[in-house]
Amino acid sequence: MSSRDSSGPRISVSLPSVLLFSALFYLDSQNLMIYFVAAAVLHECGHFLAVKLCGGRIEMLRLSLIGAEIVLAGTPMLPHSKEVAIALAGPAMSVLGAAAASLLGTLLFYDDLYVFAGVSLLLGLFNLLPVRILDGGRAISSILELHLGQERADSIAFLLSLLGCMLITSFGVYVFMSTGYNITMLFIAVFLSCSLLIKSEIVKSIVNMSKKY
To answer: What b/e readout covers 113-148, taking b as 16+ CB neighbours within 10 angstroms?
Structure first.
């Protein structure tokens, strides 16, 4: 499903993502999803602001199982330095939002602000992981492409992403073994790994080659 505002970017929302978020809201016994959604909106505002400051124009905001993806309009592509700035603007906004919420929580003695600060900080730091579908991975990919060219950069970025997913999986196994029930990190690791493979040019090439035969 999608919608278009004549004065803004087009918004596309996939049905699987709607079903996933509906399930998460239903299973959220601690009411943390509302904080996560607020933190995610703030995070995306950082990307939107950076795109505007860098002279870009947003054609579409796509929401899918892989996450939120901003599609820029027009050519040529923005310089690598601006792509890095746009990628890191989201985590930067998350960290700034966490700091501001924490300060307000101290001044107003409002515990919900502390909860939001924690969720926003975790979201920002998590997105800095060197996994290509995350902001940190996108920033690294742009830096590598600037110095090594696209083909070598894609290969190195893919290997770094695999390493990042392996580390998250290992941590998820540790958390599960320690608690005996918490599979959150394992779920995140599987989600990132599947998303990485879906977006991988290497996998797309293999699929295209298989179709020829």
So the answer is: bebbbbbbbebbebbbbbbbbbbbbbbbbbbbbeee
Task: Look at the block and give the residue holding tokens 């502390």.
Answer: 114
DSSP secondary structure letter of residue 54? T
Asked if pLDDT for residue 203 goes beyond 70, the answer is no
For residues 172 and 185, give the distance between their C-alpha atoms in angstroms, rounded to a whole number. 4
Q: What is the pLDDT of residues 15-46, one digit of tens each?
A: 766 776 777 677 666 677 888 888 988 998 99
* Strand partners for 70: 61
Neighbours of 153 (CB within 10 A): 19
For residue 155, give the nearest of 91, 201, 190, 114 by alpha carbon: 201
Say whether 21 sits in a helix, a strand or coil. Answer: helix
Q: Which residues lie closer than 8 Å to 82 by C-beta, 6 or more apart? A: 54, 55, 56
At 43, the amino acid letter reads H
The amino acid sitting at 74 is: G
pLDDT in tens, 58-90: 777 777 655 677 777 765 577 888 889 999 999
Residue closest to 123 by CA, chosen among 33, 11, 43, 209: 43
